[in-house]
Amino acid sequence: MSVQTNLKFLLSQKNLNANSLSEITNGELPQPTTRRIINGESENVRDKTLEKYAKFFGVELADLKYGDVSRPKPTIVPDAHLTTFELWDD
């Protein structure tokens, strides 16, 4: 997935657009920057900028850039039924 696709998805999940995102972040995520990214007009966005988006949406930078944020990450749930045992020396 691309940053463009991932950002569009994240915005839609929170029912936001470029304007409302800028408003609720007090301009930290400016409307023109967000609009350029989601319209595919800005391909080489700095990591420093993307980190702000990742932090706001609670995703990893790598997932925003290269992953598919529409698919939940698998989680590992510890198995409560596992037991431990001692190893014996012969």
TrEMBL record:
Gene Ontology MF annotations: DNA binding
Entry-linked Gene3D superfamilies: lambda repressor-like DNA-binding domains
Pfam family name, one: HTH_26
SUPFAM superfamilies xrefs: lambda repressor-like DNA-binding domains
UniProt-recorded name of the protein: Helix-turn-helix transcriptional regulator
Span of domain HTH cro/C1-type: 36-64
